[in-house]
Amino acid sequence: MYKSGVASAKTVLGKFSGSSLPPNLTSTNGSMFITFNSDTSNTFQGWKAFYTSIQSPICSNETLTADNGTLSDGSGIENYINNSHCSWLIQPSSGNTINLTFSEFDTELDYDGVIVFDGMDENAPVLGVFSGNTLPELITSSGNSMFILFVSDEALRMDGWSATYDTNTLGLENEVLGNDIKLYPNPTNSIINFDNSQTKFKTLEIYNVLGQSLLKINLDNSNQSNINISEFDSGVYTFKFMKQGMFKTIKVIKN
């Protein structure tokens, strides 16, 4: 017997006997009281049931257009709620690429988590899928849109996550620097050459699609050099050239 409310409630949701599977039942409030009765004669295999709770959403679908900001699962100091499905589209009115930095991360491993897309929606390429309690590394988009999806199932809940984002604004000086550096061949099987004679970048850092730093090189004011990435897996990598607060990111395809 299923009742909506505490033990003294009078609203009966259903009374079931025999071997027919009962339908799904939903209470009218935050309590459900269940009783099981059997007599002194025949015995049978019995029954089992599974329950979930429906909670008010604490995160929603948002579009963020500022050059920098914060986002989270919305739970604050509490655990996030079950059955979450929330999204954030980061699309600043100005800017070249977007950097996403997680400051906290704790979700149910393999069941709850965050998916980051390199574009405007879930049809864009995936930059990373994150679950568990390992803090993701820096994630950088290839353009001025990044779509973030948070999902949780009906079972365990954890502390949740929070993140900040900022935008790599493309000014005139950066645009000139970006136009002067050359990488070739791209795509490549192993060697990637670059000409640093005009821009004089000091440092090169290489990231994978998850935003993890794989290699950092001091360029020592060299005009031209090459890097062997034959040991890298096939895929897309971000080459980030930097000097004195300015940088240029270039996507490189490894065959």
How would you characterize this protein structure?
- This protein is mainly β.
- It folds into three domains: 1-51, no CATH class; 62-168, Spermadhesin, CUB domain (Jelly Rolls); 172-254, Immunoglobulin-like (Sandwich).
- Helices cover 4% and strands 40% of the residues.
- The chain is built from one helix and 19 strands.
- It has one helix spanning 172-180; strands spanning 2-4, 12-14, 32-34, 62-64, 68-72, 85-90, 97-106, 113-117, 126-130, 139-140, 146-151, 160-168, 182-184, 191-195, 203-207, 213-218, 224-228, 235-243, 246-254.
- The strands form five sheets. The chain has a five-stranded mixed beta sheet, with no helix packed on it. The chain has a four-stranded antiparallel beta sheet with strand order 5-12-7-10, with no helix packed on it. Strands 16-15-18-19 form a four-stranded antiparallel beta sheet.
- The longest helix has 9 residues, at 172-180.
- The N and C termini lie far apart (63 Å).
